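> forwarded from #structure-qc
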């Protein structure tokens, strides 16, 4: 049975289309939180399908905290229509706040050079780790690398306002709402 109230509520919270909200709820037994997860994953798929699109437009967002930390973020999208959208601008502001608070070094995992990854891995190896079987060593290193990514990579960081979401999830939600490829192309942090 279709629950129009739940569809309406999910639409209000996510701004996704009626049909997408209905699909998400049907695929999650009409549980709104599970439906939001479904939409996030769908946003990731939508982003993958838009991967070849060019982000020729966008905005530069600034944030200054206590006159001591300043952040500039370049947030890109496909059209000037989305660049002028209030939701897109709010996303830029949230990302700028995240950067000011968590001070990531990279935007995505792929931005870390192989040389730097090797340095991280070497730093993780200690006597106790080397005593363990090879496959267990690899799993431990992989887990510790994920922790490093959460600290140093913007898209992998838990969002400061909701630790259940990563910044990439926040961007995927915006992709669902706005229907365009969105990416952080660069940022800079100024700190006194």
């Amino acid at each position: 049975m279709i629950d129009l109230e739940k569809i309406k509520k999910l639409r209000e919270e996510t701004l996704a289309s009626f049909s997408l909200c209905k699909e998400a709820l049907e695929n999650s037994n009409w549980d709104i939180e599970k439906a939001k997860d479904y939409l996030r994953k769908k946003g990731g798929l939508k982003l993958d399908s838009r991967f070849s699109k060019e982000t020729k437009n966008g905005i530069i967002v600034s944030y200054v905290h206590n006159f001591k930390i300043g952040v500039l973020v370049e947030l890109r999208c496909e059209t000037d229509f989305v660049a002028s959208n209030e939701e897109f601008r709010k996303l830029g502001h949230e990302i700028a706040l995240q950067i000011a608070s968590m001070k990531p070094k990279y935007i995505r995992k792929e931005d870390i050079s192989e040389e730097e990854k090797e340095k991280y891995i070497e730093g993780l190896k200690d006597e106790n780790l080397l005593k363990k079987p090879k496959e267990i060593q690899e799993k431990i290193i992989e887990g510790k690398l994920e922790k490093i990514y959460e600290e140093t990579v913007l898209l992998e960081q838990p969002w400061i306002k909701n630790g259940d979401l990563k910044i990439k999830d926040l961007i995927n939600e915006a992709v669902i709402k706005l229907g365009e490829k969105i990416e952080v192309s660069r940022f800079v942090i100024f700190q006194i």
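QC bot note: The chain has three domains: 4-49, 57-107+153-191, 113-151. The first strand starts at residue 57 and ends at 65.
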